[in-house]
Write a structure and sequence with these properties.
Order of helices and strands: HEHEH
Number of domains: 2
Radius of gyration: 26 Å
Shape: elongated
Largest sheet: 2 strands, parallel
Distance between the termini: 57 Å
Helix content: 55-70%
Structural class: mainly alpha
Length: 102
């Protein structure tokens, strides 16, 4: 039993080091994330565009415009609603997809 004691101490010391390194990594990550959030305070810099893939005047358009107006006031940001009707919503989806493709 006494000869196993140095191995146990080594394992404990290693696990303490790994825990400290992990905590240091987490704190560094939090500092970097916090600093990047502080930089992005006035995002977005331009009006937010909402694309509705259906015809103007329909229920989807009306709900989209009401939501844009309601979101614009508390966020102090302009929301622009644009209708891209046709092809069962595919034209609107195509208008958005190049901006968000991987």
């Amino acid at each position: 039993m006494s000869e196993d004691l140095p191995e146990i101490r080594t394992v404990v010391a290693r696990s303490k080091r790994m825990m400290l390194l992990g905590l240091a990594g987490i704190s560094l990550t939090l500092v970097l994330v916090k600093s990047s959030v502080c930089v992005a305070d006035d995002y977005p810099f331009r009006p937010v565009q909402i694309i509705i893939p259906f015809a103007a005047g329909g229920p989807t358009d009306i709900v989209g415009r009401i939501m844009a107006a309601k979101m614009g006031d508390p966020l102090e940001q302009q929301f622009v609603v644009e209708n891209r009707a046709g092809a069962g919503g595919n034209i609107g989806a195509t208008a958005v997809s190049p901006k968000h493709s991987l």
